[in-house]
Amino acid sequence: MGAPLPLAFVLLAAALTAQSTAPAIPVRVDPRIELLSAVFRLAGNPEYGQGRLERYNAAIEAHFAPHKEHAAVRQARELRRQRGISYDAVASFAVHLEGIDPPRFATRGRHPQRLDKRWTEGDARSFLAHLGEFVRDTKVQEFLAGQRELHAHAEAQMQKVVAEHVAMQWFGTFFGERPKARFQVVLGLLNGGGNYGPSVLCADGTEDLYAIVGCWDKDGQGLPRYDKSVVPTLVHEYCHSFCNPVVEAHSALLAKAGDELFTRTAAAMKAQAYGNGHTLLCESLVRACVIRYRAAAEGDQAAADEAREQTRRSFVWAGALADLLATEYERDRKAYPTLHAFAPRLGAFFRDAVPRLDAQIAKAPKVVSIVPKDGARDVDPATKALVITFDRPMQDGMWSVVGGGEHFPKITGKPAYDQDRKVLTVPIELRPEWDYELWLNRGKYDSFRAADGTPLPPVQVRFRTRGQTAR
Fold first, then answer.
1. Which residues form the domain of 59?
2. What is the DSSP letter of 6?
3. SS3 category, 72
4. pLDDT of residue 1 exceeding 50
C-alpha cells in the first residue's frame, strides 16, 4: 500500500471529477464592458488605452473618435478627476447594468449595493443618462455587430482554457460554498493587461461573480490568444469576490496594519494602481489564495513560483500568508469554515508582518543619490548619463532600469559600475522640455541586487528637462 496522497491533490482530483459533470462557465465579450471601456478610453483613462489588438483599436478609433467631446465622455473625464473613477470602478459600473440599449441598472430604482463606492448615487444616475445618449448617438450596437467574428474567436479561445485548465470546484472547497453564486468570465478586449473582479448582488439574492480578463497576447494574424498561462489571473479576479468582503467586514482588525504596510511600500503599490492600505490587504489575501490554488492544481513548484512572483511585486509577505492558510485554515475547517472565521488569525499575521517588513527594508540596499535627481524640473538636456550611487556594493553585470515609451530616456550604451560597484553609470540621451520617468527595479524586473543577493526595493525616478539654451 502506497503513501497517502497530499491533501491538495486529493482535493484537486475531486474537483476535476466534479468538474466533468458541472455546467460550463459562460465566457463572452460583454457589450457593457466594451461600451464603458470605449467611453473611458475616449476620456483619456490610460488603463483603458492599453489594448494590444491593433485592428480592434483602429476600429474603435474610426467609429468613436468623432464623439470624444460627447457629454458622456466629458463627464467620464470629470469623474476620474473628481472621484477617482478608474480601473475597477469602471468595470463595476458596467456589470451592474441590465443592458446597454438603453443602459440602466438591473436593480432599477435602487442604487446597486455592490457598486464601487467611488460612485455616488447622483453621479451614477447622471452618467446613466449621458451614457444612454452616447449609445444612441454613436450607434454602439452597429459597431459591436461588426466585431462579432473577432469576439467569437476570443470567446472560443478562452472557453477552451476554462474547460481544460480551471478547477472551478476549488472555490467552493477553499472558501465555502456559495450556492447562489454564478461565475462569469468576461473578456475586456480594450483593456490590455487590465483585469478586474467585481460582483453583483441581484434582487433575487443570487450573485454574479466576474473575472474580467484583458487581452495582452495575440497570434501572428493579430487575433486574441489565450492559453493556460491566463489561469492564475482568472483565479485572482474570482478570489476578489471572496476576499474583499472579508477585509471590509473585519477592517477593525486589519486596517491599521494595512495602512502601515502601505506606508512602507507606497511607491511600489501606487505603480500597480493600489492606492491605500485597504486595497493592499485585499490584494495580499487574494494573492495568497492564488498561491494555494496553484498548489492544489499544479503542485508545490508552481506555488513556489507564484510566491516568488508576488515577492517581485512587493507583496513579500504573500508566501508566508499562503503558508498560514495551508497549515491552519485548510487543516482545520471545522474551526474555520470560511475566511471570515479566520479573520483573527489574519489580523495577527498582518500585525506581525509590519516589523518583519521593517527588518527586510533595513537589510535592503538603498539609493544614496541619483543624477538627474528625482523630481528635478530643470535638467540640462545635454546630460549624457544617469548616475546612480548605492550605499553598498552591488552585484556586477546586473541592473533593471525599467520603463518604455516616449517618456523613457534613450539608453545609448551599456551600463557599468565603478571599481567598488557602488556607482552605476547609464549612458543616455535626452531631449529638451520633456518629461521622463523610469524605475530602478519594478515587478519581475529586479536585477538590482546587493552583493548578498538582496534586491533593491523599487525606486521611481521622474524629472523634466529645460529648454535648449540658445547659442
1. 27-211
2. P
3. helix
4. no
Same domain for 325 and 312: yes
Q: How far apart are CA 254 and CA 352, in angstroms?
A: 11
Task: Count how many residues are written for the chain.
Answer: 471
> Would you say 27 and 49 are in contact if contact means Cβ atoms under 8 Å apart?
no
Same domain, 335 and 402: no
At 233, the amino acid letter reads: T
Kindly report, residue by residue over 152-177, the tens digit of the pLDDT.
999 999 999 999 999 999 999 999 99
Gap between the terminal Cα atoms of the chain: 88
Question: For a pLDDT cut of 70, what percent of the chain falls above it?
Answer: 94
Closest CA to 325 of 444, 211, 173: 173
Q: Strand 385-390 and strand 423-429: pairing?
A: antiparallel
Q: Which of 336, 363, 390 is the last residue of a domain?
A: 363
pLDDT tens-digit readout, 275-305: 999 999 999 999 999 999 999 999 999 999 9
Rounded alpha-carbon distances, angstroms, from residue 303 to 8, 288, 320, 339, 437 = 11, 10, 12, 20, 33
**pTM, entire model:** 0.84
pLDDT at 469: 61
Please check the confidence at residue 12 and state whether its pLDDT lies above 80.
no
The C-alpha cell that represents 402 in the structure block = 525599467
Query: Distance of CA 402 to CAs 17, 184, 335, 460, Å?
Result: 44, 35, 46, 9
Which helix (H) or strand (E) segment holds residue 79: the answer is helix 71-83
- pLDDT for residue 109: 59
Residue 163 CB partners (closer than 8 Å, separation 6+): 24
- How many domains does the chain divide into? 3
Question: Is residue 136 domain-shared with residue 204, that is, in the same domain?
Answer: yes
Contact 361, 264 (CB under 8 A): yes
φ, ψ dihedrals at 200, nearest 5°: -130, 130
